[in-house]
Amino acid sequence: MRTPRPLVAVLAMLAIAACTSPKPGWTYAPAPSATPIPSVEASGSAAPSGSAAASAPASAPASAPASASTGGTVLQVEAEGIAFKESSLTAPANQPFKIDFKNNDAGTPHNVAIHEGSPTGAELFKGEIFPGVGERTYDVPALKAGAYAFACSVHPNMTGTLTVQ
Ligand SMILES: [Cu+2]
Question: What share of the chain is helix, strand, coil (3-state, %, to 5)?
C-alpha cells in the first residue's frame, strides 16, 4: 500500500528554507529577479535580413579582438604598400600567442612568417598567405626567448624584428 508521502514535500521545503532563508515558515525563495542582461548592441549593420527574427543571439562576434578570454597575447600586424607598418614586435617566451594580421593591399598577397635570428634564418612559423584586403589571425606556437625576425614569404623585403622575452 504505497501512498504519496507529503512528508517528502515538507522536508524538501524545509531544506529549501534552511538553505535560502534563516526565517522558518518562509518556504518559498523568491526567484532572483532576472537580472537584466546587458544586451550589448551588436554594433554593426543589423540589416533586417528577411527571415531573421528580432532575436539575434550574439553568436558570431565579427572580428572582435576583445576576446582576451584565453589570456593570450595578440600582436597586431598590418601590411600596407608592400611593407609592414610595424618594424618590431615583442612576444612572451614559452607560450603560444596570436598574430592578428591585416593585409591592406588590395589584390596583393602577404603573410607573416617567423624566422630564427634574422629574416633569412630558419623559418619557425609560416602564416597563411592571402590577398588583401583581408585579415587573418595566426596561432603561433611557443617560442623560446631570443631574437627573431618576421617577414612576408612573398616579399622578402618586408621584414621586422621579433623579440621573445
Ligand atoms: Cu608580402
Answer: 10, 30, 60
Cα angle: 165, vertex 104, 59; to 5 degrees: 80
Q: What is the reported pTM?
A: 0.59
How much is the average pLDDT of 44-67? 47
Cell numbers for 120: 633569412
Question: Residues with beta carbon < 5 A to ion ligand 1?
Answer: 110, 152, 154-155, 158
What letter does residue 51 receive in the DSSP assignment?
T
Give the full edge-to-edge strand order of the sheet including 74-79.
74-79, 97-103, 134-140
The answer, yes or no, to whether residue 133 has pLDDT greater than 60, is yes
- Give me ligand 1 centre to Cα 61, in Å: 28
Residue 68 CA to ligand 1 center (angstroms) comes to 28
Neighbours of 80 (CB within 10 A): 15
CA of 77 to the centre of ligand 1 (A): 12
Q: Which residues contact 150 (CB under 8 A, 6 or more apart)?
A: 77, 84, 89, 112, 113, 114, 115, 119, 159, 160, 161, 162
Residues 6+ away with beta carbon under 8 Å from 44: 62
Rounded distance from Cα 81 to ligand 1 centre (Å): 9
